[in-house]
């Protein structure tokens, strides 16, 4: 690819500094924004054609007519700027975060005698907003808990000093129900009310431990002053908080102020879960989908998600747990850790369960709503996992069956677009192999299958799977070589014991993630071939067993026995047939011999 003159000149002067680069098309539109630890190395890599593994990157590069860049002090600054520019310009080739829900917040209003309520709108009015919460039910539980513990107002009156001092308002029913202490008539001091608000804010931040300790101290003071009724009320509040905390705790309460991020991905998207943990309590949680545009790595997507979600949830935590290594830390004060054991690892597992469930639900919905897109995604994933040159739209799988060396058969099942194509399934009776020889049987059926397809000028598959390890795979490879097809069709073997994938000429197997759709589809092919082969094998054994009994009759050979079974379908119907019915298939002498045999 010949570089445009202006692009070549820009590549020569790029600095070795961190920064953000922008690619423009011929209309002056930004089509991609990226960050770099080293602008020169990163931008130049796009124009090294030998390194392009994916068609999308080649298309992007072909559209670039201009490059602009901004140098930043650190890589973290580059990440912040990249995120801002992506949101502003929404370039075509950048990954997209799909998170269009409006989550509820709990607002502590900036006013005299602040109200506490839920809202989906965040205003810059100096009020404090806690959240967002992904679970509306949790918001209700927290607000009800606050209402039971603290007597605060829910009216919208302007309780300024002038209005309250002028006697503008009167207490309402909430006062008589003891849900509010009447600040509208100056019956509840501002100092005491604000003290309650301080405790409420701590609860909303997940700092229930401090509030419980405060209530415990207050309860003891009331008891010492012989105010037992107030002490009992405080004890009830404390128990409510403890109950709320116990229902929210998922790990050791000593794990305090931690952000947990985990990621799982497929060929088209990444899925990131975030949970906020304070004193072992999950106080916030969110899962988002990130659409890939240029085959972005899990690390790249996680970097973007960490910045996006920490900004959205206003998290200042100094510790982040993740399930994959991230190349850099957000800043020197923030530590990124991959827990391996104990309660910290349980948090990662907890978060990963949320990611996988979210991904499963998304893919399940896609399968229902757009089955073609679902199938295409699986085909793409198999191509990526097995590193195939072509998309395996047409896959065939072989399996052998025999019983103590007898009635050897084989089966070939066909999947097209990751779905069974049952009209293309084929059975094989082994013809050239004597005894239980799986390797020779596999060679025979693979040769016969593709010899016939070649003779009939039928389309060949992009991928062949043989059920078995290196031996069966070598037999399949030999058959393809004899036909001149080796190298034109990809072939692999799958060994049952550890679900290992073997490649020709490679003694080290590939292990695909047990939960990946690629392995599940390959297993489905293998299991379907086994089922189809076993069914044919049982039918053949049954037919041969019945045929053997009939051939014991003097005068009835294999051809006559087969003709009788074909006509009457079972041995019982042969026995019960009338002479006239039998004479349509065999002669008079054979009918007399059959009657005598079953007399």
Q: Any idea what the CATH architecture of the largest domain is?
A: 2-Layer Sandwich
Helical percentage: 40-55%
- Beta-strand portion reads 15-25%
Highest CATH level, the class of the largest domain: Alpha Beta
Number of separate domains: 5
Instruction: Please provide the count of β strands.
Output: 20
Structural class: alpha+beta
Count of helix runs: 20
CATH topology of the largest domain: Nucleotidyltransferase, domain 5
Largest sheet features: 8 strands, mixed
Calculate the terminal CA-CA distance, rounded to whole Å: 88 Å
User: What is the approximate shape?
Assistant: elongated
Q: Report the radius of gyration as a whole number of Å.
A: 36 Å
Q: Look at the structure and name the CATH superfamily of the largest domain.
A: UvrC, RNAse H endonuclease domain
Average of pLDDT: 81
Descriptive key words:
GIY-YIG endonuclease, 19% strand, 46% helix, six-stranded mixed beta sheet, Nucleotidyltransferase, domain 5, 5 domains, 599 residues, alpha+beta
Explain the overall architecture:
The chain is an alpha+beta fold and 599 residues long. It has 5 domains: 5-94, GIY-YIG endonuclease (3-Layer(aba) Sandwich), CATH 3.40.1440; 105-206, no CATH class; 258-367, 2-Layer Sandwich (Nucleotidyltransferase, domain 5), CATH 3.30.420; 382-539, Nucleotidyltransferase, domain 5 (2-Layer Sandwich), CATH 3.30.420.340; 552-597, no CATH class. The chain is built from 20 helices and 20 strands. Strands 13, 14, 15, 16, 17, 18, 19 and 20 form an 8-stranded mixed beta sheet that branches. Helix 14 (438-455) runs parallel beside helix 15 (470-482) and helix 16 (517-551) crosses helix 17. The longest helix is centred in the C-terminal third of the chain and has 35 residues, at 517-551. The protein is elongated, with a radius of gyration of 36 Å. The mean pLDDT is 81.
